[in-house]
Amino acid sequence: MTALPEDVHRRLLNHGLVRQFAKGELIQQRGDPGKEFWHIRSGNVQIGRYSFDGKLSIFAVLGPGESFGEQAFLGEFPRMVDAIAGNDVTLVRIGEKELQEAITSDPRVARILLKTMAHMVQQAFDLVNAGRNLSTVERVARALLGLCEGEGHTVSISITQQELADLVGVSRVSLGKALGKLEQSGNIERNYGEIVVLNPLLSRRRHHSPAP
């Protein structure tokens, strides 16, 4: 969405259907047909998979300005993940009608969508590579930076340690040790139900240097 020309981006959002979901409500389910994708106007959305015993493994937490569901929608295949409202969220639903109008009005849209899909594939390879080569501390730091919204000397992220452990793909014990090291080095502070990312870690994002 953010890669689209501003006028196309605005037109899609203006013509999409606004939907609201309460915290914990299921937005899309794995196996559903991909008939639309979603833009987050407010709140956050947890992307993951429910196991047979009902446990949710979180792969990503998305916030305002981000979108999800494009791959299944553009590829016309069933959803591969579940999406759950992390808190009360407002979304914009964009379907075939809205996208076709955008492509017809501006030929650049189709090319941009192809580039976006290519970037998604590259990000998937990067995640696999990171899992093989980065330490747990580095993986946790990168995950926290990916969840940060806005600029400033501190950014508060509303996430539990269990959710963060699921997102990174480590145990609670391993996560606790990694967070302890990041806190000792002055990169984060831990509060109940949130993690505060401090300037030393945020400055790495601004200067595009590796996580600690």
Describe the model.
The C terminus is likely disordered. The protein has a four-stranded antiparallel beta sheet with strand order 1-8-3-6. Strands 2-7-4-5 form a four-stranded antiparallel beta sheet. It has a three-stranded antiparallel beta sheet with strand order 9-11-10. α5 crosses α7. By secondary structure, the chain is an alpha+beta fold. It is globular, with a radius of gyration of 18 Å. 28% of the residues are buried.
Q: How many individual β-strands?
A: 11
Beta-strand content: 25-35%
Could you say which overall geometry the principal axes of the C-alpha atoms support? globular
Poorly predicted spans: 207-212
Distance between the termini: 31 Å
Structural class: alpha+beta
Query: Percent range for helical residues?
Result: 40-55%
Strand order of the largest sheet: 1-8-3-6
Task: Give the overall pLDDT as a whole number.
Answer: 81
**CA-atom Rg in angstroms:** 18 Å
SSE string, helix = H, strand = E?
HEEEEEEHEEHHHEHHEEH
| Count of helical regions | 8
What about the largest sheet? 4 strands, antiparallel
Helices and strands in order, then pairings?
Elements: H1 6-15, E1 17-21, E2 26-28, E3 36-42, E4 45-50, E5 56-62, E6 67-68, H2 70-75, E7 82-85, E8 89-95, H3 96-105, H4 108-133, H5 136-147, E9 154-158, H6 161-168, H7 172-184, E10 188-191, E11 194-198, H8 199-206
Antiparallel strand pairs: 1-8, 2-7, 3-6, 3-8, 4-5, 4-7, 9-11, 10-11
Short synopsis of the structure:
This protein has helices at residues 6-15, 70-75, 96-105, 108-133, 136-147, 161-168, 172-184, 199-206; strands at residues 17-21, 26-28, 36-42, 45-50, 56-62, 67-68, 82-85, 89-95, 154-158, 188-191, 194-198. It is of the alpha+beta class and 212 residues long.
